Amino acid sequence: MNIAVIGTGYVGLVTGTCFAETGNQVTCIDIDAKKIEMLNGGELPIYEPDLDVLYARNRAQGRLTFTTDLAEGIAGAELIMLALPTPPDEDGSADLSHILAVAEDLGRLLTEYRVIVTKSTVPVGTADLVREAIAGNAKTDFDVVSNPEFLREGFAVSDFMKPERIVIGTSSDRARRIMERLTAPFVRQGNPVIYMDERSAEMTKYAANAFLAMKISYMNEIANLCERIGADVDHVRRGIGTDNRIGKRFLFPGIGYGGSCFPKDVQALARMASEAEYSFDILDAVMRVNQQQKTVLIPRIEALFGSDLADKKFAIWGLAFKPNTDDIREAPSLFVIEELRRRGAAISVYDPEAMENVKPLLGDEVEYAENYYAAVQDADAIVIVTEWAVFRNPDFKRIAEAMKSKVIFDGRNLYEVELMRELGFHYESVGRKGTRPDAS
CA 287, 254, 320, 29 torsion: positive or negative? Predict the structure, then answer.
């Protein structure tokens, strides 16, 4: 099939590349000339495991091309996919200006029947708005389909190529037949393609992300309670995770969620509820808990070092909101660094992929280390923010020798408490008893 993907952000680039991998001819379109020049030059603007291999292969074989010209990009395309940004407005609702502007342009450009597919996460009713925007200028038939993505950053290629399910919202039999052809290569093992109306498909994406965010915040609340009553959240997590009604995933406590999806989608769903005059109390609690959780380590740092940290240095391990991505949107690391800097602390940071994305935000306010061992040199404490695999088995002897004091604040529970006790570290994590050698 001939496919056009409008938008080369995270969703658009993964979508276009993966469709090309199954033999489709894909043209990706973006108004950012610098980004398109980069992509045409063989360079990816984002980090995502395995995406580089698929991108290089399909670009070399001519199935994946990039342009800034909308008319050129959609020429001959049976499907036109909208993967455009929907950033939150000041009131929390999703900004649809990019999508609706492109929809108006498409109306002027369409010369024969096309299927327009919204891949972006959009409020319920957006398919209707897109349809109206296109129809205002269109002189031919078309259909608008909602096909939300369920991609986890760090696993997006695998999620796309081997989806647990595909959700398609359409009321058109003609569009459904085209979508069946498109999705068939991805569900050969029998995973479901679930058809529904457009509004239900749009709601499904928000309902899924909000539920997962709620699960994370719930476990963080359980972890905070465990600390106060002497329980161990790791035992609790394993105890409830084996219940198939609950499941094992999204039960790891920590210092909150971030990224481009959960914060924005929870906020947008809460806004939709407000506009419908419905009080969605659980979502309000989820957002409040997550905001508090991002800096849950700060009082513990103050308890050990005091509120004036002007003579202290902290090594921050991890900047991305999660491992295997360079995405720092709503990353807990930024909140931790802000609080430490407010108290006068010196900061040294290291992340395997996200360093370049942080530099425009923080400038010379922090020191950028070449590796995680360099980051801890002369540090008073390590603060672990992102659970990169490389942090899981460090040389603790080397770390202890480089630091001023053997202190770790672990926001992702990477290490066993007993091991830290044996190694003589002051070690505090989330939802577990800490080790405090100086107090024993």
Answer: negative
